[in-house]
Amino acid sequence: MAAGLTPGVLRAQPEASGLGAIARQHGVTFGAAVQDSLLQKDADYARAFATEPAMLVPEWAAKWAALQPEEGRFETAALDTILRWGQAHAQPVRGHALVWHNSLPDWVVAALGEGRERALSVLGAHLDHVLAHTRTQIRDWDVVNEPIANPPGSDEPQTAPGDLRDTPWLRALGPGYVETALRMARERDPTLRLTLNEYGVAEDTPAAAEKRRRLLALVRGLLSRNAPLDAVGIQAHLQLANPFRPEPFAAFLGALREMGLAVLITELDIRESWQAPQDLAARDALVAERASAFLACALGAGVRTVLTWGLTDKYSWLATEPAVALPGGRAHRGLPLDAAFRRKPMWDAMARAFRGA
Ligand code: G3I
Fold it and tell me: Which residues on adjacent β-strands are paired with residue 56?
């Protein structure tokens, strides 16, 4: 139970400084995923984003479906809204995501089916435009998102053979597509930080252990061929239904850092189990406890950038995505602020973790 909170009553008066300011005092960058439309239409949301994060990542606006919905037609208004907001609030924006199998317009999937040359040309044109457009503001991109195949025992295990996720990119360009994408990004911007971003590698389950092994193998292979890779992003969509033990995760983070890579926590949120208790305070305490354990491990292993996937339960994907929503209309409480933008025990746990960094 988070100290100082009577069950069910959340503190009315927030602390002066947000998580970003607290984290910065201890050499850590805290950020959050942001939706441009909500900055414009929800004053409470805008106030929370002015207060809490020191970095932003577009939740949608930098994905292929948002940026190039039709071949040759680039839509950057939504991303530019976020870039302008970031500039006005001294919040750098990281990019998510250049190559991904999700949120790909149909025209790209069709083009990727037309052979290697067409695939390279489509990818090159996207990178040309997007990296040039964002060059002065986005200095770190998730170049490839979720390249690893889900092992047996994971939520959506892949049946196709191989350690790489079976995607239109893999089919069009072969297993070297990750290296190809990294090299094409590097050719276009020599000082951009190039990040691989992945999920399902944080918890103490056989599936997560196997996915960690697969990701390490991919990274080692890339570095052995001198592929331009600077960082690995760990999404950290944690699930209370899965155990977390610091030792295997710390060893994994250590292995990445020993290879000279930066490691970021890119999409932290905490999904409750279906057996979640009814009592809000009890639920919040479980979420806060997992946040504490996870961040103590990550920060202890040298992670210095932590982003949550949103700030408030009100707009979390956990509340709307049917595959993860709780039964009976209960909304997950997996982000630092509740649906009324009040700081929860998870917020306190994160502040304590940053102070202990
Ligand atoms: O499709 C409309 C589009 O036509 C419209 O222009 C746009 C305007 O905002 O909205 C689009 O709607 C939805 C979009 O979110 C914006 O809210 C998309 O249909 C919907 O698929 C999309 O879902 C996002 C999902 O990624 C797919 O991109 C979720 O919000 C977002 O939370 C989720 O985030 C992913 C990370 O990128 C990768 N890691 C997992 C994480 C959770 O799934």
Answer: 32, 93
Q: Cα 126 to the chain's mean position, in Å?
A: 21
Closest approach atom of ligand 1 to CA 103? 28
Q: For the chain, which domains are there?
A: 19-355 (3.20.20.80)
CA of 341 to the centre of ligand 1 (A): 22
Per residue of the chain (357 residues), what is the pLDDT tens digit? Answer: 444 444 445 554 445 599 999 999 999 999 999 999 999 999 999 999 999 999 999 999 999 999 999 999 999 999 999 999 999 999 999 999 999 999 999 999 999 999 999 999 999 999 999 999 999 999 999 999 999 999 999 999 999 999 999 999 999 999 999 999 999 999 999 999 999 999 999 999 999 999 999 999 999 999 999 999 999 999 999 999 999 999 999 999 999 999 999 999 999 999 998 888 889 999 999 999 999 999 999 999 999 999 999 999 999 999 989 899 888 778 899 999 999 999 999 999 999 999 998
Which numbered atom of ligand 1 lies nearest the CA of 96? 37
All residues at 6 or more sequence positions from 185 whose CB lies less than 8 Å from its CB, including other chains: 98, 127, 131, 141, 143, 192, 194, 228
Residue 59 CA, ligand 1 centroid: distance in Å: 7
Atom of ligand 1 nearest to the CA of 66: 6
- Tell which atom from ligand 1 comes closest to the C-alpha of 60: 16
Distance from residue 258's CA to the centre of ligand 1 (Å): 34
Q: Is 161 exposed, middle or buried (0-12, 13-18, 19+ CB in 10 A)?
A: exposed
Using only C-alpha atoms, the chain has a radius of gyration, in whole angstroms, of 20
pTM tops 0.85, yes or no: yes
User: What amino acid occupies position 272?
Assistant: E
Which of 60, 70, 103, 267 has most ligand 1 atoms within 8 Å of CB, for mutation?
Answer: 60
Residues flanking ligand 1, CB < 6 Å:
37, 59-60, 63, 102-103, 145, 199, 235, 267, 317
